[in-house]
TrEMBL record:
The lineage of its organism: Bacteria, Bacteria division WOR-3. GO terms for molecular function: alanine racemase activity; pyridoxal phosphate binding. The modification N6-(pyridoxal phosphate)lysine is found at residue 34. Substrate binds at residues 129, 307. This is Alanine racemase. It comes from the Bacteria. Its EC number is 5.1.1.1. One of its GO terms (biological process) is D-alanine biosynthetic process. Pathway: Amino-acid biosynthesis; D-alanine biosynthesis; D-alanine from L-alanine: step 1/1. The active site is at 34 (proton acceptor), 259 (proton acceptor).
């Protein structure tokens, strides 16, 4: 007997590569593949764009090892702080990792001894979670540059709110530029501040002294919603999320649906039970307000989002039957549901929506000509 996935993620790798090529028209790009390639699959994504980049960025040393074990010869940047017990492996495997303090630097030098150590330095200009405080960064970087044991790969900062707070973002950029003004930036291989939102919002981040941008969610076809969009990009859809109809039935007025009886029919209706739920990455916040697409028409979610099931209103959709495809994210006919739309309904951000689905679902990797 053959079983198919009742709810799955469709990943168009050809479109993913097209997106990277489009982004490279504007700036040098470091693809950010943290959190298992934003849930799409670190190995599959890296393999797809291997010949289109000189660097990969990941969130932690475990992900760096995944790339190392693929025999990838590109530069591997670890963006987040690593633990002292991980220093030895990071040094031995030539990962480019951040140093967070003078004491950490001393320990790294002790462990590294006669081996050149690849590091980069994050400058905290306002994110407040990692990096050297900007007012200490100049002296710290000077000290690092004087160490013959160190291969200094670069300096970077992380913008806290490029989507919503232009004033604070400009303050961060100014602080970072002040730090950089104390050095010969032509000798620093990697200088970057722009993430996806910064990339489309601040042209300044695409000019010298910035020589790279760190791009994650844009690669995967999701355009951040910003107040200050200055770039118009041709970004292709990469991800679809699909499920199936399991049952179709008619219900009477007064019938309740789902846990907590949060929906009661005000009229006779036709409903469809669908093979998805919060166990498959669909947020419970979409209870009674999310939509899916069936036969090219939007159908509202009725009642609570359950672990494995949801119910949708198909009263005005003809010919619905068990086995029919349901689009949760993506296009079908003239209708479309994207990550930003769902994020707005769920009062969250598209990053969380993408990661939730990515972590929960099996993947079908396709190329454009195979997509429907």
């Amino acid at each position: 007997m053959q079983f198919g996935y009742k709810c799955y993620m469709e990943v168009n790798l050809k479109n993913l590569r097209k997106n990277l090529i489009e982004l490279k028209k504007f700036h040098n790009i470091i693809p950010v593949l943290k959190s298992n390639g934003y849930g799409l699959g670190l190995k599959e994504v890296a393999r797809t764009i291997l010949n289109d980049t000189d660097y990969f960025a990941v969130g932690n040393i475990e992900e760096a090892f995944v790339l190392k074990e693929m025999n990838i010869k590109k530069g591997i940047l670890v963006l987040n702080p690593i633990l002292p017990r991980e220093y030895k492996e990071a040094i031995q495997n030539d990962f480019i990792f951040p140093v967070e303090s003078k004491s950490a630097l001393r320990e790294i030098l002790r462990i590294g001894r006669n081996k050149k150590i690849n590091i980069h330095v994050e400058v905290d200009t306002g994110m407040g979670r990692s990096g050297i405080p900007y007012y200490e960064a100049i002296n710290f970087i000077r000290g690092v540059l004087n160490l013959k044991e160190i291969n200094f790969f670069g300096v970077y900062t992380h913008l806290a709110s490029p989507e919503k707070d232009p004033g604070f973002t400009k303050e961060q950029i100014a602080k970072f530029l002040n730090v950089l003004s104390n050095f010969d930036v032509s000798k620093i291989p990697l200088i970057h501040a722009a993430s996806s939102a910064g990339f489309i919002s601040y042209n300044q981040l695409l000019r010298k002294p910035f020589n790279f941008s760190r791009i994650g969610i844009l690669l995967f076809g999701v355009i951040p919603q910003t107040q200050n969009k200055v770039l118009n990009l041709k970004i292709n859809e990469v991800v679809k999320v699909k499920a199936n109809i399991l049952r179709v039935q008619e219900i009477k007025k007064g019938t309740s649906i789902g846990y907590g009886t949060l929906f009661k029919a005000q009229r006779k209706m036709k409903i469809a039970t669908i093979s998805t739920g919060y166990g498959w990455g669909l947020l419970r916040k979409l209870t009674n307000k999310g939509y899916v697409i069936i036969k090219g028409k939007k159908a509202k979610i009725l009642g609570s989002v359950c672990m494995d099931l949801i119910v949708a209103d198909v009263t005005n959709i003809q010919g619905v039957k068990p086995g029919d495809e349901v689009v949760i994210i993506g296009k079908q006919g003239n209708e479309k549901i994207d990550f930003n739309e769902i994020a707005d309904l769920a009062e969250t951000i598209p990053y969380e929506i993408l990661i939730n689905f990515g972590n929960a679902l099996n993947k079908k990797y396709i190329f454009e000509e195979e997509a429907k």
